[in-house]
Specification:
- There is one protein chain.
- With about 400 residues, the chain is α/β, with parallel strands linked by helices.
- It folds into two domains: about 100 residues, Urease, subunit C, domain 1; about 270 residues, Metal-dependent hydrolases (TIM Barrel).
- It contains eleven helices and 18 strands.
- The strands form three sheets. Strands 7, 8, 9, 10, 11, 12, 13, 14 and 15 form a nine-stranded parallel sheet that branches. It has a five-stranded mixed sheet with strand order 2-6-16-17-18. Strands 4-3-1-5 form a four-stranded mixed sheet, with no helix packed on it.
- It is globular.
- The structure holds zinc ion.
- The site of zinc ion has 4 residues, from loops.
Length: about 400
């Protein structure tokens, strides 16, 4: 069978932020996009399999930049369900060493039907908010970073402040000191690995910026100094607004301390994102999923986050760029991921309707007709399987999986 596929006549949103192309073609050879553009302007090889998606939107698979999946069977299920929802890449901030093995298994095709995993490893202070490789003091921190790089980490994750989760900590608690963050960032960068920091409050946000980390995550109590500092250093801000959304506040009746702090942070968090957007901070999409809280299913969080970002002033197109191109760049994966442009992996969604008119359509699994991962159909709606003459060698749905 030909290695060529041409996805034709859909409306193309390529993830770069460029205006949509009605009546487009995305030309794929093997795993990668060869080119994408207006139908008629792209020469289609005669032996290409043409897939007619008239009336649909064609766009890059979504990337979630802040998930918690490790390397166990539950992680596999989460990654399978994510792929079916159009999330083709999951960056786990707590993949750790078990997740690295799962990442490699997925990349080698041994674990099938899963979203791609980008594996972050945690280096943390004693009794810190995040936990895996505990290290205190600059030299021990450097050693820990080296260990995680040797294990195969795609990036290093740490915490500069406390968080909502535990009853005995507050977001205002400081985690790593400036001295430790400087050592961590310097060592990670020496090995060409980006640094991702959980930070809700000052001084953690400011210390992280000063240390030269790459991404600030959460910032539920971020202040103007923090937002402007992120811009000045051209860092990425991944707010994870879902965490402090009304829906999430309702999801945890058994954790009153958490709800109280989240409620306090809610307006501060949104004011921070509004300002970040207004002044041109690079905003990313991450959600802190899965989480087993009432009302959230695996895959709900990422499209929900896009709606939260729109409520803070982003346009639908800006949220799509944030969840594709900007996320890929933040994790230094832009050579392979993020946009439907030449040379990238063919991670493609065929969607019913126009997400620029209503971003909410991405939330509904039935509107995501087909998901391609690396040029192969990875998931397809029963109703559309036949339409696209799709043949799958794996179950379409994880029957009986508790999500
Ligand atoms: Zn998290």
């Amino acid at each position: 069978m030909s290695e060529w596929k041409a996805i034709v006549h859909g409306t193309l949103i390529d993830g770069t932020g460029a205006a949509p192309v009605t009546d487009s073609v995305v030309l794929v050879k093997g795993k990668r996009v060869v080119t994408a553009g207006a139908y008629g302007a792209v020469e289609i090889p005669p032996d290409a399999q043409e897939i007619d998606v008239s009336g649909k939107t064609v766009m890059p698979g979504l990337i979630d930049g802040h998930a918690h999946v490790g390397g166990d069977t539950a992680a596999i299920q989460v990654l399978q369900l994510s792929l079916q929802r159009g999330i083709t890449t999951v960056c786990s901030v707590s993949a750790n060493t078990s997740g690295i093995k799962l990442r490699d298994g997925i990349d080698a095709g041994q674990v099938r039907g899963c979203a791609r995993l980008v594996a972050g490893c945690v280096v943390c202070p004693t009794h810190g908010h995040v936990k895996f490789r505990t290290a205190d003091g600059p030299w021990e921190v450097r050693k820990a970073v080296r260990e995680m790089v040797m294990a195969g980490a795609d990036f290093i994750k740490t915490a500069a402040s406390g968080g909502f989760w535990a009853a005995d900590e507050k977001c205002s608690v400081r985690n790593y000191t400036l001295e430790e963050l400087v050592a961590l960032a310097d060592e990670a960068h020496a090995w060409d690995r980006p640094v991702v920091v959980h930070a809700h409050t000052q001084p953690g946000i400011g210390n992280s910026i000063e240390a030269g980390v790459d991404q600030i995550h959460h910032g539920a109590f971020i202040d103007e100094v923090g937002v402007r500092g992120i811009l000045e250093k051209q860092l990425y801000y991944m707010p994870t607004l879902r965490v402090t959304s009304d829906r999430n506040l309702d999801a945890w009746p058994d954790r009153p301390w958490m709800i109280q702090e989240m409620r306090e942070s809610q307006p501060v968090h949104r004011a921070g994102v509004r300002l970040a957007h207004e002044i041109g901070v690079k905003i990313c999409v991450g959600t802190d999923y899965p989480g087993s809280a009432h009302g959230w299913k695996v895959g709900d969080a990422t499209p929900f986050e896009l709606q939260e970002l729109i409520a803070c002033g982003l346009s639908p197109m800006e949220t799509i760029v944030a969840a594709t191109k900007t996320n890929a760049e933040a994790f230094r994966k832009e050579a392979d991921l993020g946009t439907l442009t030449p040379g990238k992996f063919a991670d493609i969604l065929v969607v019913e309707g126009d997400p620029l008119q209503d971003i909410g359509i991405l939330y509904h699994q039935e509107t995501i007709n087909v998901v391609f991962k690396e040029g192969e159909v990875a998931s397809a709606d029963e109703a559309h399987k036949h339409l696209y003459r799709v043949r799958l060698d794996q179950p379409l749905r994880c029957q009986g999986v508790k999500d």
